[in-house]
Amino acid sequence: MFSYSDLSQLFKDGSALAKKIKSQELNQVLLSYQSQMMDMNAEIADLRQKLAAYESQKNLSEKVILEEGIIKIDNSKQRYCPRCWGKDRKLNPVAISLTDGQIVSWCPACGSHTVLESEDAASLINKIQN
Ligand SMILES: [Zn+2]
After folding, report:
1. Domain with 20 in it
2. What is the pLDDT of residues 61-70, one digit of tens each?
3. Integer Cα distance of 30 and 118 in angstroms
4. 99 and 74 belong to one structural domain
5. What's the CA-to-centroid distance between 122 and ligand 1, angstroms?
6. Ligand 1 centroid to 126 CA: how many Å?
């Protein structure tokens, strides 16, 4: 497979040859091909960037677990907003509080409250609070 710089060199060589044989037409064709190659190279760079972002998001999605109604990753104590994750695939940390025997998470980013589903609120809050 040719690298971008190999192809650039081929176009330079071709252009030099076109000048040597005094073919304006050949030179124009080569310049047009070179321009198309540069466009394709920019498109490839853009697609590589999108693929990297997609793979990064995919790896993250594989680690995300919905537990007691909110998001956790691996064995971290930090919990994240299920609404923000569901909507934008963003991990926004939630604040956890114990109110009237219920554990409630609150997301500062979207403002949503989630009552955690738990039979033993005291042990759950120990598990998830830092
Ligand atoms: Zn949120």
Report:
1. 4-61
2. 999 999 888 9
3. 70
4. yes
5. 24
6. 22
